[in-house]
Write a structure and sequence with these properties.
two-stranded antiparallel sheet, 49% helix, mainly alpha, 2 strands
């Protein structure tokens, strides 16, 4: 999926006009095969990201085969999330593939970087991304889980986060009113888009710092005239 956007990662989703009122109640069961596959895919993703770290550190390039695989894992994750409890925006069952599916209503792509900063790779995934981690921790519930673990010593006491809360509201409205509020969908898309941008940045797939803004709506915003923000040593030249 090639398109011009304001950030190297593009997350799009088309909300289905007709959604089942009750199917969302059992989607947790329907996605179990995907969850099992994604568990192993994410393990490989993490291992390959370590390999990419050293490749970038010594060569300034992200190995293309590893990049394509990791983008596929993000793409697969987004389709399952869009179908299930990050959006509930389609009843079209996600395909089992790393490749882009132009017929599926949820799509994700990342522009391949021709070169990356060798110095920036040392700090962007932990230090520079820290402000974003705090924000998406609230979105996903990780922040509440960390708080509960520190307070109670209970590693399993995780909150659902804003995304989980809003999806629950969307599901209840769908169940009782047979409609999905457009404003709620746009807000959920903005939060999910933020999460995936930070994930791609932390996974070393771009040097462009994720914007601290909520780009809502099903489609990516058009490219702006602003200069991309590069934070850290050895900034890449912009053209």
């Amino acid at each position: 999926m090639a398109q011009q956007t304001s950030y190297p990662l593009a997350v799009d989703g088309a909300r289905s006009p007709h959604l089942s009122r009750w199917l969302w109640l059992v989607k947790w069961l329907l996605i179990i095969p995907h969850v099992i596959v994604l568990f192993f895919l994410w393990f490989v993703f993490l291992v390959l990201s370590v390999v990419a770290f050293f490749a970038i550190l010594f060569t300034g390039r992200y190995p293309r085969a590893i990049f394509d695989f990791n983008v596929g894992v993000l793409r697969w994750t987004w389709r399952v999330s869009f179908y299930s409890y990050s959006a509930l925006a389609t009843d079209h069952y996600p395909p089992f593939t790393l490749a882009d599916d132009p017929d599926y209503p949820a799509r994700l792509s990342v522009d391949y970087p021709q070169s990356l900063s060798r110095g920036l790779v040392l700090v962007k995934w932990w230090l520079l991304a820290l402000p974003h981690y705090l924000i998406i921790g609230v979105f996903t519930g990780a922040a509440f889980g960390s708080y509960n673990q520190v307070r109670d010593g209970n590693a399993w006491a995780y909150g659902s986060g804003l995304i989980g809360l809003l999806v629950c509201i969307a599901g209840l409205v769908l169940l009782f009113a047979d409609r999905y509020p457009r404003g709620l969908f746009d807000l959920l898309m903005g939060m999910n888009r933020w999460v995936f941008r930070v994930t791609a940045y932390a996974a070393l797939m771009t040097d462009q710092y994720p914007p601290l803004r909520l780009d809502m709506g099903g489609s990516e915003p058009p490219p702006s005239a602003d200069t991309p923000v590069m934070i850290g040593p050895e900034p890449l030249p912009t053209t």
